Every structure is written in C-alpha cells, then in structure tokens.
Request: fold
Amino acid sequence: MTTPMRSQYLALKQQYPDIILFFRLGDFYETFDDDARIVSEVCDVVLTSRPVGNDERVPLAGVPYHAVDGYIARLIGAGYKVAIAEQQGSEPPKGEKIVPRDVRRVVTPGTLVEPGLLPEKANNYLATLVVEPDRAALAYADITTGEFAVAEFSDGGESLRKVMDEIARLAPAEILVAGTQDKASRAPIQDPALTELLANCHVTPYASWRFEESLAQQELLTHFGVSSLEGFGLEAHPAAVRAAGALLQYVAETQRDGLVRLNSLRTYSTAEFMMLDPATRRSLELTETIRGRSAQGSLLGVLDATRTPMGGRLLRRWLSQPLLDLEALNRRLDAVAVWHGAAPARTELRQALRNFGDLERWTHRCMQGIALPRDLVGIRQALERSAEIKALILNAWPDAEPLDTCDDITALLATAIAEEPPATLNTTGVIRPGFSAELDGIHLASRDARAWIAGLEAVERQRTGIKSLKVGYNKVFGYYIEVTKANSGLVPDGYIRKQTLVNAERYITPDLKEYESLVLNAEERVLELEGQLFDDLLRRISAQSARPLHTAQEIAYLDVVAGLAEVAENARYVRPTLHNGDQVDIKSGRHPVVEQMLTGESFTPNDVHLSGDDAVMILTGPNMSGKSTFIRQVALIVLMAQIGSFVPADSASIGIVDRIFTRVGASDEIARGQSTFMVEMVETANILHNATERSLLILDEIGRGTSTYDGLAIAWAIVEYIHNHPQLRARTLFATHYHELTDLAERLPHVANYNVAVAEQGERVVFLHKIIPGPADRSYGVHVAQLAGLPKSVITRAQEILNDLEASGAAGPRRSNAPPTVYQLSLFSQEDPIIVDLKGLDVNALSPLDALNKLYELQQRAKGT
Reply:
C-alpha cells in the first residue's frame, strides 16, 4: 500500500508534471523520482532512496530549507522551474494522518522574488510576446517592483523590428510565447531574425488558448476591476490586450499572491523615446562591454554613482530609453543642475542615501505576503532616512515636490518590530515588547513560571528538610524533583512519582506541572501569536503601499540626478543646450569611458559640427589614431544629453536626435551562415531603411569586408544615398580608409572632409588624436604594423612593396572624381558617360531637390573631364 506522504506528493506532482517539485518535509525540501535525479546532478546533492510502500523505494534528493535559495538559483540557471510545496498548518486535519501541503508558488526566471537571486540594480522582467501577420505586441512586468507595461506595433513590416528592439532594451529574464511544451515549437515565429533573438532568451511556451483575446480582455477587466480598457489606452489594440492578459494569467498561476503587485498598467509608444537597435546598444556598450559582459567599462559604469538599488534601476532605464521630449529633458537637466550647484547639500544627500536600502522591493514583498522581519526593519529605517532627506531637499531645492516620509507607517513599525529581529519567523523575538498586551502577557507568564521553577529547589529543600533534593529537566520527562532513595521517607504526600532510577526517585507536583506547561507551551504560543501579528502588519502596510512606493520612486529620482551631478563635477561635464533644430555643435568633446580609463595621460578633446548644411563628415586617418573613438564619443555625448545628463565637453548644443544608428566593428554570425561582410551589409541596410533626417549615423569602415573596388563602390553609393535622399540626409559621421571617398566633398555640397592629425618624426609616427579639416594623405598602415610588433624583416619588406605599388599607381590615395568602376568608359562606345546619364534621366520623376542634386553632380563630373 502506498504511504499517505507518497500519495500526497503524487497528487501535487500531477499538477506540475514538467516542473521540479520541492516537497517540504520538516527541515528539508525533498524531491523524488526523476526530479531527484535532476537535483542531484545539477545541485551536486547526494542521491538516496526512500520506501514509499508496496515494497518500493524511489530516488530521493533533499536540500535544507534555510539554504534553498542557492539550490533554486542553480536549477533556474540550468533552465528548470521549481514548484514550492509547503505545509498547511502544523497539525493533520481530523481523520488525516499527515499535514496537508500545497504549492505556494512556482519559481521561474521571470518570477524570482528572492533578494539573493535578483540583480540589485537591474530589473528582472517577465515578458509576453504576441506576433500577428500585421502587428506585434510586447507586455512586460517586474513583480518585485510592480512595473507593468505593454506596447503594440502595427506598422506592417516595421512591427517585428520594433518589437525586437524592445526585447533587446529590456533583456527579459523570461519570455512567454504561444505554443506547447514541445521544444520544437517553442517559438512559433517565422521571422529568422526574431527566432535567432529568442534563441538567446529563456523562452517559455504558454498554452495558445491563454492568448485568446476575449479571455485576455476578461482577465484584465477582472484584475483591475473596470468595465472597459479604454482608460488604459487598449481600445483597438487587440495584440496588446492578448499580451498583457496572458502575462497576468501566468503570474496568477505561478505566484499565488503575485497579482497584488501589478496594480497599474502603462500602455506606451516607442515614439516617446529614442529607439536603439541591438547593434547600436552593443557597439556603444551602453550597459555592458562587448567582451566582458560587465558594467565596468561601459557608459553605465561611468555614470552610475547611485547609492540605492531603486536609483540604479532607474538610471539603467533612462539609459535604455533616451527621451525625445525637450521639456521633459530640461526638467531632468534642471534637477541635475540644482545638485551640481549645491555640493555640500549633495554630499549630505548622498551620505543619507548610502544605506537607504530597497524600499521599493521591500514594500512589494509586504504586498505579496512574503516579507521577512528584517524587510520591515529596512522599510522603517528607509522611511526614517527619508525624513532627513526631506529636510535636505527643502534647503537645496525649495521648488521640489514635498517628499512623503510616511510618518504613520514609520511609527507603526517602530512600535511593532524589534530593533534587531531574527531573520525568519521561526524564532521568537520579532515583535517589540509593548505592542501586544496578549503577547506581553504570555512572555510575563513564561518569565514568572521560569522564575518559580528556578526557586523551587530552595523552597522544597527548606519545606521537606531534604538537603540533597534537586529540580531538573530533560526533553523526555520534562521538569522533575529528584530525591535520593535514602531520603524517600521524607517525601511529602503531594509528590507524584514520575521515574525510578537506581539510587533515586523523580517526582512531579501539580504546581510544577502547571508551570512546566506555561514554560513549554509559551514558545509555541509566542511563535503563533507573533506570526499572526506579523501577518496583520503586512496587511496594514499593503493597504497603504502606494505611499511608500511613491516615496521610493522619488528617492530613486533624487539618487539618479544627484549621482549624475556628482559625476559631472568630478569629470568636468557641462550642461548641454538642447533644441529642436538640426545642429549638433560640440566644443572640446571627450569620450566619457575612454577618458576615465586613461592613466597617466590626458584625453585629447575634439570639436564636431553637424547640421543640414554639414550633414556628412568623411573622416580619414590611420588605424589607432582615434577615428572610432571620436565617432563613438559624439554618439555617446548626444545620448547622454538625451537622458538628462551633463556631458564631457566645454560646450554642447544638440538638436534632438530621434535615433542613433551605428555600424562599427567586425563580427560574423557563423551559426546563421553569415560572413562578417554580410552582417555589415544587413546592419547597414537596416540603417538606410529606417533612419530619418533627425537621426545620427555612426558608420565605421563600411565596405572593408570585401574586395577593394566592391567595398569602395558600396561605400561611395551609401554616402550618396544618405546625402541625396530627400527624406534622409541624416547627420552622419563616416570613418573610412577609402581615400577616394574624400572626393565626395567636392561633388556633394553637404559633405565635408576631416582627418586625424599625425606627426612624423623621422621614421617615427605620432598620432595626435586631433580631428582637423581636410582629407588624410596616407594610411600609415605599415607604421601601425610596426607598433604592433611584427618582425622587422616583415616591416622592411612591406615598406618596399608599398613603395613599388605607389610608384606604379596601384596603391595610395586615389584623387579621381569617382570610384574607378563607376564612370569608366565602355570599351564598345565612345559616347561620353555624362551624355548617357542625361539621356536616361526621367525629368518628370525628379523632385526639385533631386533635380538640383543631379545637376550639381553632373556639373562636377563635367569639370573633371
């Protein structure tokens, strides 16, 4: 016959067949059968066995309950989910043999709530993806902070690209897609790029019927207690409704009390922010480096001077979503300016923020009913510090919104929770004396009983005349009075024999039994009552949770702007001037990351001016001279300005940029069968299709992945396209080794040449890292090879070959008016190519701007013939 425990386990496991079930037994979480084998392998736990009736033994692997977080982390990291089954009460129901158990929650990558498993300064997002033929939607939530948002993209072919940009921005810990548990159909998305993106994410198939619009809509209406979704901006957005509704259902399934955290839903449009595609985020190293996958060495690593987890998360969100709203940006810059100009107050503020803690996540843990005693101490201490911070704000920033210090909540916690409570509710001492008369009464009775028992031995010795009488205690028999057999005749009538020993008898009295009961039952009663009082505290805090959460948001904002002010002062940043024009004018700009990493030398600053009239900068110069650093620093300065940060420059006047695109570096995608050059062309195609006249383009060595003439022709055509396209003409920094492209400045009115200055000292070359007008005259590739440490014989031979090639005209800067393959005369026709082009023009199809550009181009070609 199967044991009751086994039957209970199998009933729960049937509900969670594809999830590791942690089954609470005493001080351990036990796993059985295949789950035990997985836990043993992944967590390095000894695999044993246990009898379960019917002469059967099954595999068993257990982990201690107090260390369960570490084991859960290993399993989640290995791609598994974990269901936590806890005991319901301490005694079996009448007629039952064992305590009932139920799954309290399912732990998945996107639903982690354990502080030790969460990144402190980054959100842990759960996302839901919906893709339809003509639209796409993405909903996401962080159940530890309550953030819940959804966006729908319905602009045809651009929908998938935009939803992929959002996935790259959010980096969700888990993404739900409609599908089955069959791994072959995990991502039923036909687009190869999206499929590849999801392949690098933790994708969870979720039953397709959960995404049905009517069900999802009803889930949203019920959860928010409304009769219409119009107030959320979800009318006529069916994909967004499906995504948000499916996410709510998943949270309800996995987190019994998780939905209480998601008490608002924000519907947003990516048009509110500067969109950054994955390639741009990667190449600009906004939040992590390309190689190290670390914040150190990234822009975030430079700017993050925040002191609180909430501030760290907010700064990361600002970096991932630069603003386009000029008024909102100036409000941020005003706030940074306030603290930049108030250094003493800023120092005091940052000191007060140092140990502020995570008020946001602590409050959400209260809302879900999983907070621990020290979480409440953290809330109290944070709110106490907020009173100090409020005074600092009033002195330094009188116009700021008053900070709600939640004094009533602080007072409640100060009177309810002990100053240094135990870590869990399994130990007494959580509730402060004086908070509960009933609890104080139990403690008093227990102390009195212990004192009575402690004095019993002296009292009984005097009363009975038995000088060797002892009062003792053991776990089996409890408290007792021990009398040697030699003194048995002196034992009073009221003693009740309890245990016989070789040389003594042990007794109990009715009074001793009563006081024993008070002592032994007191701890259990105290634990029970403290648990009830603690749960009531959580409910009272949850009822007012909006207030400490708002305070947490205000503190996060203060933390970010004060941190940016600190960075600005230490690194000599200035406030940028933002406007809606087309000019980007930076004086003595510096690369924020490279400048910080330099040791023993100063960074060489450079100017840049881009506008509609000076739209394209062709930048030439040798390798290692600083071309890539320069063009990236322009992008980073613009981006910093559009998150509300001061910037590394002497001055900066920046017209709002709608998007930054970058095509830098060399990488291949072998798994996709794409060469370095194919990746380069795909990324460039994305730029040319999606950039606008308000965009900033950072292009580095376009066309270098193929043959010289092919690459040159492509690079030439790309510059012409950016310059001539009536809806483009984006502000562009184009770094290249193709000296032929410098001729474009003579042919196209809005192209300008710049180069990186080089000083030659004999055979030695010194890179000055200074950007100056005009084209570079040579590449200095052999000199760079020499610096890299190539053998001297190789360098000597390379220089000989280079001299021969330059003498024969086969190498060196070309000074023709066009790429060699573009305007070459046909072998079979003597007709001038300009005449051929004129004959082929469809004048009626040209816009006025196209006509002017074409006329200018033909004139320049004619001058060169």
Remarks:
- The longest helix spans residues 510-543.
- The chain is about 45% helix and 15% strand.
- The longest strand covers residues 751-761.
